[in-house]
Amino acid sequence: MTPNARSLELFFVDGRPDGLLTAQVFNWTGHVLRIPRTQISEGLARHEAGHTGVYILLGDSGGAPLAYIGEAENMRQRLQAHVAGKDWWDVAILVSTTDDQLHKAHVKYLEARLVEIAKSIGHVPLDNSTLPARPSLTEAALANMESFLGFLGIVLPAIRVDMFLDKTRAEKPVAETNVQTLPTFVLRTPKHHIEAFAVLENGEIVVQKGSYARAEWAGSVDTKSHYFNLHAELLQSGVLAPEGPRAIFTQNYAFSSPSAAGAVINGRSTNGRTAWVEQSTGATFAEWEAKRLEATLP
Asked: If you average pLDDT over residues 204-232, what whole number do you get?
């Protein structure tokens, strides 16, 4: 077991994966509550909603993803105001502690840092009009809040909130990278003059800088589709830079699966297990994977 291993507990309040959900990490005092807007009354009735904390509103406006980050000493009251004042959001994420120990300076610091992180990554535009100032904290409180953010960085992606997750990967000097040991794959779509290269590193499909993708989404336009939104986010953040009908990757970018990478590159749903082929052998990703399993498993 790695020293950074963590145990995450997800509780589906009404038994539905897209319904009310709470998330906690063992040995962390933080508490995360996800409330779909359709269940806002049930969610705000929970005692955690009355805690001091930070909250994130998620939705879309004009077909593009949008988010808002705020803080409140009583999140229930603040969210009630946002129900009437903001009509674009679909999900609210409420972050507090199980024993309501965060105070105003803590949550103002967390709000400022989350806005900073979201803006620096740039995947999802923010509805926040200004960048909140960081409040003054003691050295100990500052360390505690940064540790709190570290745990939050584990929980949020686990519940499909990826806007704080930096998937860009720095280019490594040749001396630091043994390219020969990294499986390398290529995806080509000649009809659209697309050619993309990726390496499999640390369990991620890292599409390489200079690879090409379609500049516009060509599949079904569903604003709830993860791949549709991801394609839009990468264009918005500049990871994909349009060049006519194509877009070029300006940085190395890590995807969680070959199909996610393939969908963004082709601008439509793609079976990445057959679309990506191993560069040296021409085997599909699925064939390469099967052969590797055969060689490593008893």
From this structure: 86
237 and 263 assigned to the same domain: yes
59 & 191 share domain: no
Residues 78 and 220 in one domain: no
Among all chains, which residue has been given the structure tokens 């807007």?
37
Query: pTM for this one?
Result: 0.73
Among the listed residues 171, 234, 232, the one whose alpha carbon sits nearest the alpha carbon of residue 199: 171
Count Cβ atoms below 10 Å from residue 214 Cβ, excluding itself.
Answer: 22
Given CA atoms 215, 270, 222, 254 in this order, what sign does their dihedral have? negative
Q: How far, in Å, CA of 35 to CA of 31, rounded? A: 13
DSSP 8-state code for residue 173: P
Yes or no: say if 67 and 124 are a contact pair by the CB < 8 Å rule.
Answer: yes
Q: Residue holding tokens 């105003």? A: 104
Same domain as 112, residue 72: yes
pLDDT at 227 (0 to 100): 87
CA dist., res. 207 & res. 140, Å (int): 40
DSSP 239: S
Provide the residue type at 17 as one letter: P
Single out the residue in 158, 179, 214 at which a domain terminates: 158
Query: Does residue 164 lie within any of the structural domains?
Result: no
Cα 249 → chain centroid: 18
pLDDT attached to residue 185 = 96
Q: Which residue has the tokens 């998330």?
A: 23
Mean pLDDT of 254-272: 94
